[in-house]
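Much of the work behind modern protein science is quiet bookkeeping, done one molecule at a time. The protein below has been through that process, and both of its lines are reproduced in full.
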Amino acid sequence: MPQYFIHPDKIRDGRFTASEEESHHITRVARKRLGEEIEIFDGQGRRWLAVIEAAAGLVSGKVKEDLPSPAYKTRLVVCFAPVSRSSAEAIIEHCTEAGAAAFQPVLTSRTQFDWFESWSERATRFETLMIAACKQCGRATLPELLKPQKLDDLLAAGGMAVIAAWEAEKNFEALAAGFQGAPEVKLFIGPEGGFTKGELEYAAEKGVKSFSLGKHTLRAETAALAATAIILDRLG
């Protein structure tokens, strides 16, 4: 059963009211009617089974019971270099489904797109994609969307971090023990052409490990999804 996003402010005293857009999806797309049950979530970690009691205009109704809200204990921040629009949207959509807790655009030496000036517009689009992905996969918490930063600044800030790089000799399993129990891990995904030798050396100086995703060169969106799934499956 698909679920619908209800803003937390619109869930109170055991009742909910859907937005105009969600009301359209519920009644016109899914063709739900009075008395039918739907699943709703608030984007902050909670899901419920609810029943529709009004559908003329905005859909509203009664919250019946809590639903399971599975989540990973590791907060994985996907730090990805700006890529083409379609590739960036694929990263946001599919890594949300896989369980990424946050997205951090990172500007590297080989980055071809500068998102500093256009971030507000892009953020709006990315937020829409994250909501849609959560609705599709049954996730209760929306990822955090962070503003673009330069790679050097993020590396200098410290914290547990790992780079998915085709040059690496080890896979993540060989590194996993060092990340076990870490509350947050930053995952760096490079641009087309990957990170420069200097960037990888600087990252290594900061204690950042690199791991391989296999024998073949992957597109940025493929690498982001594969790495996210591998890390969260291993760390939980």
Notes: The radius of gyration is 20 Å. The mean pLDDT is 95.
